[in-house]
């Protein structure tokens, strides 16, 4: 593949950068490692999942002592996830020789791996960099940190949730249906949204339009802006009216409005407690 | 050759007065243009205010469609570029695509398509023009120069390592003989920089890193050089320029890792900052950080507007930014002196107040966490990159805003997280509004609450006593003093780029990009 000269200069600059910064890493990075590429990240990286699995074991055994168990570097050897060499690599053309021969001048030994083993480590490294690079493949951690008892009290008291919901009624068994993170997203924003796990609300938004002659038209909201109000009535008939200077008058009823109103009120502790309570409803 | 034959007669017919064969007279960049829109923001002040008033509050009810044309073909193309208008020709882009179209009727004059590549196609914000040459960023981190007359490629140069997942979206800005550009991308912990290129050759003139290295001021705001060098802070939309002070102003983006801060304790200069750079040397002259130690993806890469105003009876050279973090900032643009900080949405819940310099003090209790923290605004911000406008006639700055909430999660608790290392999940919204802010105080003079849609929408104000923006599917004219709606027309969606206004042969037009289409409006006159 054709590579312009500027690009080559960038690669050559890498060892200098690596040397200058790697001595200043925190002393024990990687020790609380929680990140392994998720299945979605491995799929996205287009690496062979079996090779990635083998590479993970091999890397930890042969390389992790210096580069850290997640390849993020230690005070002995550089971070490989942020490494320009790894990010620029295709199919081991750049990093294969380094693994194969080591970098004795910089203290990196020749480890003595077979070619298939080198291929597995390359596959794993690419899955790791892909994972860091693609936030849509991230796995959420534990959202179940709240106190279920306090959550129940909030649900029945301050939160006002019990005005519409019941742990023994509509929410019975909800804790068995979703993991805590999904559950938290769904109850916070029942109509869903970017990054949300919503679309849980079944009750539609409705509107009442008061026409100039005083007649009222009520139905499920289809579209509402400064210039049009459109709705579908109980018989399924579609109604649409022009709006001008706020007329005709429109009243919107969103059954999930209480969720929006709570946004200004609840604390993070309230949220985590309610999640814990809902998660306990098995 | 065929294309060339088509274009030259058009250009000549316009009676273009470009000396020495240049399409764009460089002086246009220093004026308040009426017959051109020669740079991303219309002029260097970036106020996106047109001095034209043929279309005005008295006749806007008669504003009607002049033409509409589609430039994509169901291939997912979105025009996020503010079109440039030079000698009757519109120049605009989408990722991998540049078009020239006759502004009289929308007819495509040429269409340049970049080579196939795997770069991000999140957006492209347009071209810069210098004489006969156009400049745009290609997704694989290259700056491409085209001949504006033919769409023929002159050269392309690499502006960043194409394998590091930068997003090359920025409209280059021409200052003197400098093609000044930033780049986008915070997926991984890339170095951030602004650079200047020679318009004739593409050669690098200077490169200013948005985060310091050892021995440079600001390095004390990072744990070490390693964190700073991977601290990102991309300047991904063009800024503004003061020719008298010879300062280029640009906002920088959020630091990396984006949502996990444990490996980057400190203020993290010069991320989320407004910086003033000498465009001849690439040296930073002053900075003001609007979000110290940012953890919610709120870039300061949002519009910067230069205002020549009066504060306490004294004329001042000012710089305003209604920032993504929900605060309005007013600075002295000669010195960077802080004058005003004022929240413009009332749902903000992430600070412990302001420090002596007027900077928000982030509340650690609202940093993203594994079990989630509820914060307003969501990562998309109280506003975002869409065009804001300032009208010198009203003294008001117009900005599209959102009172959104998200749960912010950390997904990487390592001492040494990478990339975003977290995510936010929308938790709801309190609504969205068009705000008119008093530039002197940041106070909201009037607001228009959108029944739906709206949010950070694109704006233009004019001397015709008009303010233009869009909701989800209408082009709308407001009375800029009061917020009264004067006119609207249906579109196929929201505007996807800043609208522009210009005159051709004495007639005023407005052009707005919507998806892969351009709509152009004018007030028709009776046939004689």
Report on the structure:
The complex is a heterodimer of chains A (282) and B (528). Helices cover 39% and strands 10% of the residues of chain A. Chain A is elongated, with a radius of gyration of 28 Å. With 282 residues, chain A is an alpha+beta fold. The longest helix of chain A has 19 residues, at 115-133. In chain A, helix 3 crosses helix 7 (115-133), helix 6 (95-101) packs across helix 7 (115-133) and helix 8 (148-156) crosses helix 11 (268-279). Chain A has a five-stranded antiparallel β-sheet, with no helix packed on it. Chain B has helices spanning 2-13, 225-229, and strands spanning 49-50, 63-70, 84-86, 89-94, 97-102, 108-113, 128-130, 133-138, 142-147, 153-158, 173-175, 178-181, 193-197, 204-209, 240-242, 247-251, 273-277, 284-289, 305-311, 314-322, 327-332, 338-343, 351-354, 360-362, 373-375, 389-391, 396-410, 422-438, 444-449, 460-462, 466-470, 474-478, 485-490, 500-504, 507-514, 517-523. Chain B is globular, with a radius of gyration of 22 Å. With 528 residues, chain B is mainly beta. Classes of the chains: A alpha+beta (282), B mainly beta (528). At the A-B interface, helix 1, helix 5, helix 7, helix 9 and helix 11 of A face helix 2, strand 27 and strand 28 of B.
Descriptors for this entry?
heterodimer, A: 282 residues, alpha+beta, Cytochrome Bc1 Complex, Chain D, domain 2, SH3 type barrels, 5 strands, disordered N terminus, B: 528 residues, five-stranded mixed sheet, 2 helices, 36 strands
């Amino acid at each position: 593949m054709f590579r312009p000269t500027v690009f080559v200069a960038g690669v050559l600059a890498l060892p200098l950068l690596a040397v200058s910064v790697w001595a200043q890493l925190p002393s024990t990075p990687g020790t609380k490692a929680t990140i392994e590429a998720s299945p979605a990240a491995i799929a996205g990286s287009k690496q062979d999942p079996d090779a990635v699995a083998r590479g993970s074991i091999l890397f930890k055994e042969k390389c992790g002592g210096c580069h850290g168990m997640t390849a993020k570097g230690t005070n002995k050897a550089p971070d490989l996830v942020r490494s320009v060499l790894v990010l620029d690599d295709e199919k081991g053309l750049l990093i294969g020789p380094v693994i194969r021969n080591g970098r004795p001048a910089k203290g990196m030994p020749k480890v003595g791996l077979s070619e298939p083993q080198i291929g597995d480590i390359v596959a794993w490294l690419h899955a790791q960099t892909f994972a860091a690079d693609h936030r849509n493949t991230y796995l959420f951690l534990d959202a179940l940190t709240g106190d279920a008892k306090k959550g129940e009290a909030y649900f029945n008291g301050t939160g006002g949730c019990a005005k519409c919901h019941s742990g023994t009624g509509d929410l019975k068994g909800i804790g068995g249906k979703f993991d805590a993170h999904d559950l938290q997203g769904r109850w916070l924003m029942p109509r869903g949204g970017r990054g949300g796990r919503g679309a849980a609300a079944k009750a539609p938004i409705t509107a009442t339009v008061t026409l100039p002659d005083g007649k009222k038209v009520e139905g499920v909201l289809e579209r509402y802006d400064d210039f049009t109000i459109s709705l579908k009535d109980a018989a399924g008939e579609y109604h649409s009216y022009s709006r001008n200077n706020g007329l005709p008058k429109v009243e919107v009823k969103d059954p999930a409005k209480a969720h929006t109103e709570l946004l200004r009120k609840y604390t993070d502790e309230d949220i985590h407690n309610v999640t814990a309570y809902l998660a306990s409803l098995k | 050759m065929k294309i060339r034959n088509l274009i030259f007669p058009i250009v000549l017919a316009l009676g273009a007065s470009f000396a020495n064969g240049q399409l764009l007279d460089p002086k246009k960049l220093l004026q308040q243009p009426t017959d051109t829109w020669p740079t991303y923001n219309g002029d260097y002040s970036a106020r996106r205010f047109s001095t034209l008033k043929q279309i005005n509050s008295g006749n806007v009810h008669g504003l009607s469609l002049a033409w509409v044309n589609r430039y994509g073909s169901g291939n997912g193309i979105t025009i996020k570029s503010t079109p440039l208008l030079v000698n009757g020709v519109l120049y605009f882009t989408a990722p991998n695509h540049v078009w020239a179209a006759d502004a009289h009727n929308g007819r495509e004059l040429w269409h340049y398509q970049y080579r196939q590549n795997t770069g991000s196609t999140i957006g492209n914000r347009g071209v810069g023009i210098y004489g006969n040459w156009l400049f745009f960023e290609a997704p694989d981190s290259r700056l491409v120069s085209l001949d504006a007359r033919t769409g023929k490629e002159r050269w392309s140069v690499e502006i960043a390592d194409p394998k590091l997942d930068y997003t090359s979206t920025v409209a280059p800005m021409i200052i003197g003989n400098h093609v000044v550009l930033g780049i986008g991308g915070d997926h991984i912990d890339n170095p951030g920089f602004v650079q200047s290129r020679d318009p004739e050759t593409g050669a690098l003139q200077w490169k200013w890193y948005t985060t310091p290295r050892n021995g440079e001021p600001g390095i004390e705001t990072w744990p070490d050089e390693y964190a700073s060098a991977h601290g990102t802070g991309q300047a991904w939309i063009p800024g503004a320029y003061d020719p008298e002070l010879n300062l280029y102003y640009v906002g920088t983006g959020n630091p990396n890792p984006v949502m996990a801060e444990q490996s980057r304790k400190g203020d993290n200069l010069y991320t989320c900052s407004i910086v003033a750079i000498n465009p001849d040397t690439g040296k930073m002259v002053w900075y003001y950080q609007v979000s110290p130690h940012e953890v919610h993806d709120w870039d300061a890469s949002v519009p910067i507007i230069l205002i020549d105003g009066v504060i306490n009876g004294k004329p001042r050279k000012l710089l305003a930014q209604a920032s993504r973090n929900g605060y309005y900032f007013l600075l002295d643009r000669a010195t960077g002196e802080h004058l005003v900080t004022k929240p413009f949405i009332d749902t903000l819940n992430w600070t412990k107040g302001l420090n002596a310099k007027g900077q928000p003090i982030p509340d650690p209790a609202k940093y993203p966490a594994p079990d989630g923290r509820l914060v307003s605004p969501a990562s998309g911000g109280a506003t975002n990159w869409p065009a804001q406008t300032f009208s010198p006639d009203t003294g008001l700055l117009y900005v599209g805003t959102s009172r959104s909430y998200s749960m912010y999660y950390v997904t990487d608790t390592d001492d040494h997280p990478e990339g975003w290392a977290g995510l936010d999940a929308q938790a709801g919204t309190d609504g969205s509004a068009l705000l008119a802010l008093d530039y002197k105080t940041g106070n909201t003079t009037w607001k228009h609450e959108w029944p739906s849609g709206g949010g950070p929408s694109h704006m233009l104000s004019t001397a015709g006593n008009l303010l233009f923006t869009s909701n989800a599917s209408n082009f709308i004219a407001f009375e800029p003093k009061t917020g009264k709606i004067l006119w609207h027309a249906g579109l196929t969606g929201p505007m996807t780029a800043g609208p522009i206004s210009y005159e051709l042969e004495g007639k005023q037009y407005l052009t707005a990009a919507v998806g892969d289409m351009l709509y152009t409006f004018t007030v028709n006159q009776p046939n004689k």
